[in-house]
Amino acid sequence: MAELRTETMTVNMGPQHPSTHGVLRLVLELDGEVIQSVIPTIGYLHTGIEKTAEQKKWQQVIPLVERMDYLGAQSNSLAYALAVEKLLGLQMPARVNDIRVLIAELQRIASHLIWLGTHAMEIGAVSMLFYAIRERELLLNINELIAGFRFFPSYIRIGGLREDLPRGFHESVNAFLERFPAKIDEFEGLLTKNDIFRRRTEGVGVITQDDAMQWGLVGPILRAGGSDYDVRKYFPYLGYETYTFNVPTATEGDVYARYRVRVAEMRESVKIARPAISRITPSGAWACDDPRVVPPPKDKVYSEMEALIQHFLIYSQGFTVPAGEVYFPVEGPRGEHGTYVVSDGTNRPWRVKMRAPSFMAIQALPAVVKGGLIADVVAVIGSNDVVMGDCDR
Amino acid sequence: MTAAEVLAALAPLVPNASFEEAPSADFATVYVPADRLVETCLALRDAEPLRFTTIIEITAADYIPRQPRFEVVYHLLSISRRARVRLKVRVHEGGTVPTVQGVWKGAGWPEREVWDMFGIVFDGHPDLRRLLMPEDWDGHPARKDYPVQIRKGAQTYEPLEVSEHEFRANIERDRVRRTH
Hints:
heterodimer, A: mainly alpha
């Protein structure tokens, strides 16, 4: 019998492939359907945000960093604002911290909803996307309420918040928190025991705890491998130590474990958001009282000379930040979002660097999917929850 | 964990290295000489009181006109000790830093990014190519002496000039062609 000639096939996936979440390009080398090697190419969404930030005044960087991880926008600006506030040595009023906690948790839910919808859709459960987007719409409405902007509210500022909470904020948040847990049950009812979903995800794309640490995948990926590392518990900020919540973990480290961890995280976020909204008074302090950073109230600007000067200085020259450097980590939806800020004592940052969880997740992708099937690539990319804006910055 | 504690734990493992404690607003910061970097990182990862098993990020900063010009910054995390440490390596322009990919697998891409953005060469890196910028890009954009806005000459074409006479003739010719 004549011997059959076999050779591997090279397939290009992306950058315009719908299931690569934006513009990720993968060059796959296939033996039949089995993956021999993967070469990711990134950088299609590189916009030089870190370089641009060096030309802006400190406060002007907030809208820029929100556009990095566009699904978890406010966790970027939170990490940045907290880093700069640490250099400035600012102390926030308790109400500001509570509002920031609430915003961070709502942002986590919003980001996880997009992840849940797209991840399930890519695996074949198309209708999940519509259920998830419907709930996220309510969170975007809350963003619109507080800032007039749905995706990138820039509501968190250095020195506090942009302005006080609007009327109707508590009602909107409470209505969402009231309705949402039943919706998570609905999502889980569609997926958790779904035989097709489980066969596509169980035992696929395993990332063990040790591997996740080696690759720097701190976040839901690490927790799905068994660790309980969560920045909110290990290095508390914003008074997270005063809230009662669990850190969901799993041990298998596969796609299904990461799904369970993220869904459980949404439930925990609701658990944090409920006491947070009850602590927040309808009106009160919304910024610290440091006149270097926070502009004076508008009525004083019109009546007092000093306030007018202060207002003018803040909006024309900005404020200076003492020389030094800080790395501030926060627990973002995709894992540890950190900002490394270097100041040389002027009114513009010397260097701003965001730690990008998606960057690390795509780096680990070739090692995770090697030897798997081509259909698993889609499941693994989805479960690692990569956002290319975050990866390329 | 303070910088003094980190240095005390490192001293027996990496003998005769000139570590330097740096002032810091958040957590322990240590200057490491480039030639002892890999040794130090292995000790930080494996030594029982330290266990910095997780790489958080590798980045750099350009402090022109100060010499040496660059500082490569490593942020490490020890989950079991609940501690963070920042290592810094001073590099001259054109100088090299040994790669730490053998210590943490996740160091590969961050080092590529630093090379791409700052032009700092990592010795022994198996795949030191451009990562974020296109392969044929000139220069390293995150350097302070790299221009923020590059003005390229606009690509222009001569405007199309057709007199009314030619225009009518063209239409006429077109009509003739279509009717035949």
